[in-house]
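Cross-posting from the modeling subforum.

Setting up a comparison between two proteins and wanted a second pair of eyes on the formatting. Protein 1 (sequence, then structure tokens):
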Amino acid sequence: MSDTVQPGSQAAAAPTTLDINDIQRILPHRYPFLLIDRVVDLTRKERIVAVKNVTINEPFFAGHFPGMPIMPGVLIVEAIAQAGGALLLTEVEDRDDKLMVFTGIERARFRRPVLPGDQLRIEVEVKAWRMTAVRMEGKAFVGDKRVAEATVTCQLVDRSRSRRTGNETSGPA
């Protein structure tokens, strides 16, 4: 992780940027569902800015839409949630035992299409923070144009609890 030192301080501050390897140590998502490539700015418990490089190789472009590829809006909202999850999970020491799940999406708006070749910049600001849950306002940009926005809420759950729940419902009918 990239560390920065505040002027006049002797201790290193928390990381303010994360590369893809750092992100993969924090988030459980993997291809084809990891939707942030880099964190370019992080202020603990307050704000995160991440980028997603959108390429024609994204699997969703095969069907959304043939001959007119557009990134699905729901995946832009997922990228907002993943960026927020990365911000929250940096505060969790036992994050390998935890899972960040969506609990709500509000005021989602899609203003412009996101196309292959675009770089999506995701800016997420924390509106309410509890150790196990967070409410965040996210905005997505291509260049200086806002392409989407949404308020998302996420909750931190124990992985063992989510596995138990999954096993209870996956048995024979």
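Protein 2 (same layout):
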Amino acid sequence: MFRQAPQTQPRLAQDVYDQILSAIVNGQIAPGDRLIQEKIAEQINISRTPVREALLRLEQEGILEQSGRKGFSIRKITGEEVRALYGAREAIEGYAAYMIADKKNAAQLAVIEAAVDAERQLTNRDLDAEFRINREIHRTIVEQSSNPVLLDMFDSLWGRGISLWLFAATRKDQTPPRPDLHAELLNILKTGTPQKAQAAMIDHIRDGLDSHLKGLD
């Protein structure tokens, strides 16, 4: 399941984290499977320390929970937790959209438009690429609001592995993302009132919430 990590790699814990998260997202590790740090370390051919760091990080991010002695398993996330995460997104990204539409700064809107155009030109439509371009569009909107506190909050929320895990849930037996949705949102940022832009962003986020809840079911 895991590939051998090069001994010279300076960030082993990050590499192990990425490998485990990818295996969870892709279904190679299923709910109920136990992750034992000694076994993973032996398979990757590294010491147990970076493996434990990676497992503890995934536990802190809400993806894993401790299961037995020195073991971990996938934690069952509840609908209430998903709603809480999306509620935080509504507050952060909704207000950012309000500020963008209020200023209607041409330079800021051009940066957002470039991010939206990048999604249209995306040729690799695998899960990781879709997640990254979606996050980049939303992050660009928050960044262009020129509010560093909002951006810190966004990065804290989207920087956790659980965001990718939840995004993966939306791809189960559902249609792929529609690039035109972000184009429509951009048009509202350009032409709509601040209140309309905020409402459009919140509606957009709530559509994602519905997809996530269906995916978790």
